[in-house]
């Protein structure tokens, strides 16, 4: 979402023992870049770079583009339908199937919207197309700071023992493919009763250009994750470019006990959810940098609906709803997903998948 306010992956992603176990999808950006033939985002580590090279070498055999996919909800297995013979590397509406070390990486793209193909889902499967993970990367904000995404990771393989869906809001390059919302006036009442998370995003002027602080809270207002990212020249850059900022900024992704809030970040350790819903207003501390704007997101119904409030100089200037429509594959997996819970702060029992 470009508010008119206005490259590489972060090699210092930080995790703590309390965070969800790293997964193949959570260790890399979802989807392809919007201009992949001319600009590339380097991988977060040498290992990821090696994996990327291997994946490029493995795009053979049953890979390619397909018009549709069906999912057996009892076994969480994908079936590819109606292969497109001459598709090449150009993005298009459909399902792109690439062979990976563990099986297949399948990207579901929607119809072109404003010159972009929205990435609806990213699937990771084994060689028999049994689901391991599903990822969604949904764009909330877009500008000179890069993009801010709501990222959901659904777990299906038995190794995860019914782990709840991972969810967090963070900033990254706007070159990365993502799902795009439609704008509506309000969130439907039925969906508004299903609050799953809250996020606070603060965009400020700081060395090397712009800093983005994105905090994700559980529905009861407890801080779950903090993303601290840098931008320069109109897009996201690696966090080590914060070196020399004053007050100092420690960039990266932080979870649980690994979150160390500094007073000048302007991020509260808890968010007054009920008070905010009742009377929307600035309910967070001052920040130690010139602020461009702050955004509060109320995430509903597995992030299919989002209420977005924008504040400039402490005054609310925008309040609108973002809608990320469901997909047939998401609906086919809804029973499994709902059983497991949404957000790492929920608990779910292993059901055998």
Can you give a write-up of this model?
- The chain has 353 residues and is mostly beta strands.
- Helix content is 10%, strand content 38%.
- The strands form 2 sheets. Strands 9, 10, 11, 12, 13, 14, 15, 16 and 17 form a 9-stranded antiparallel β-sheet that branches. It has an 8-stranded antiparallel β-sheet with strand order 2-1-3-4-5-6-7-8.
- Strand 10 and strand 11 form a beta hairpin.
- Mean pLDDT is 83; it is low at 4-61 and 349-353.
In short:
The protein is mainly beta and 353 residues long. Helix content is 10%, strand content 38%.
Helix content: under 10%
Beginning-to-end CA distance, first to last residue: 36 Å
Give average pLDDT, whole number: 83
User: What class do helices, strands and sheet pairing give?
Assistant: mainly beta
Low-pLDDT sequence parts:
4-61, 349-353
The total of helices stands at: 5
What's the shape?
Answer: globular
How large, in whole angstroms, is the Cα Rg? 20 Å
Strand content: 35-45%
Task: Note the run of SSEs as H and E.
Answer: HEEEEEEEEEHEEEEEHEEEHH
Main beta-sheet strand count, sense and barrel state: 9 strands, antiparallel
Number of strands: 17
């Amino acid at each position: 979402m470009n508010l008119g306010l206005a490259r590489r992956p972060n090699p210092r992603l930080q995790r703590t023992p309390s965070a969800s176990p790293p997964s193949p999808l959570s260790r890399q950006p979802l989807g392809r870049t919007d201009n992949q033939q001319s600009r590339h985002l380097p991988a977060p580590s040498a290992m990821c770079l090696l994996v990327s090279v291997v994946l490029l070498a493995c795009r053979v055999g049953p890979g390619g583009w397909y018009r549709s996919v069906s999912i057996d909800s009892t076994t969480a297995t994908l079936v590819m339908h109606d292969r497109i013979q001459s598709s090449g590397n150009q993005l298009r509406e459909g399902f792109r199937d690439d062979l990976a070390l563990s099986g297949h990486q399948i990207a579901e793209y929607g119809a072109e919207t404003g010159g972009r193909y929205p990435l609806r889902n990213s699937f990771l499967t084994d060689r028999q197309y049994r689901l391991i993970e599903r990822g969604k990367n949904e764009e909330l904000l877009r500008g000179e700071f890069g993009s801010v995404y709501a990222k959901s990771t659904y777990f299906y393989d038995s190794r995860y023992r019914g782990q709840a869906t991972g969810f967090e809001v963070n900033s990254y390059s706007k070159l990365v493919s993502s799902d795009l919302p439609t704008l509506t006036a309000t969130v439907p009442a039925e969906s508004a009763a299903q609050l799953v998370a809250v996020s606070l995003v603060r965009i400020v002027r700081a060395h090397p250009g712009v800093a983005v602080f994105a905090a994700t809270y559980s529905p009861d207002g407890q801080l779950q994750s903090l993303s601290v990212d840098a931008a320069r020249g109109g897009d996201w850059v690696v966090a080590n470019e914060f070196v020399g900022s004053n007050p100092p900024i420690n960039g990266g992704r932080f979870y649980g006990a690994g979150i160390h809030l500094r007073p000048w970040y302007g991020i509260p350790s808890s968010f007054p959810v009920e008070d905010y819903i009742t009377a929307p207003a600035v309910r967070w501390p001052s920040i130690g940098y010139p602020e461009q704007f702050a955004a509060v997101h109320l995430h509903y119904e597995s992030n299919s609906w989002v209420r977005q409030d924008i504040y400039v100089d402490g005054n609310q200037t925008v309040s609108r709803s973002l809608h990320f429509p469901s997909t047939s594959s998401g609906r086919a997996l809804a029973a499994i997903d709902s059983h497991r819970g949404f957000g790492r702060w929920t608990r779910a029992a292993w059901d055998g998948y």
